[in-house]
Amino acid sequence: MRRSTCSFLGKTCATIRLLLHDTLTENQRLALVRFYISGSASSSPSLSIWRRKKEMTKEGLIAAKELKRLQSNPIRLDRFILSHISRLLKSDLVSVLAEFQRQNQVFLSMKLYDVVRKEIWYRPDMFFYRDMLMMLARNGKVDESRLVWEDLKIEEVLFDQHTFGDLVRAYLDGGLPLEAMDIYDEMRRSPDSPLSLPFQVILKGLLPYPELREKVKDNFLELLPDTIVYDPPEDLFGDQELRRESESE
What we know:
With 249 residues, the chain is mainly α. It has helices at 2-20, 26-38, 58-70, 74-83, 90-102, 106-118, 126-138, 142-154, 161-173, 177-189, 196-205, 210-223, 234-248.
């Protein structure tokens, strides 16, 4: 208890010294104040902020409404982000981004994605990137997905096997098999041990793609030879192939 109290006081004193430093800009001072108002001193450090329950305050709701109103005017939108969004509390910023992701607001989500990554409290987080990629997969956004993926590679973010499986399935369901298989290749290169459930999730999503499914199935049985893989009736593959051909015409 004494050690944690000393640690907190030390951090607080260091922050006060920073706030008093003449070279800090107004926005930097505000960011430090917001960090300690909404920071994690009283919350569990083991739980990612991206997994906590997200509830917007009145300020967050107003900001979200204004962002949606201004999204057709890039200049005014950028000004509003600089003057208002960058001053939101951490919890509000996280909640607004989560709500835009839920609404499949790709453009605004990408805007807030950039804002979050510039915040003083930002730390690379698997769940932050997972939520962004899941939203982009639902909306079939290839270019944005590649941008986000490049960022997470630079920040050396690692997904666990279950998250890899969910992402591959999301891109398959979004009609992006090439991107899904790129993520699958990343999954194969992961240092984590392979698990049965993520492969089962992927194989189910690969039903419309029999050739890709056979490739993944062979990998699965090679890595986990004692696992039983359920194969649907052959005529189901034919129905899936006909459906894909009809959709492409």
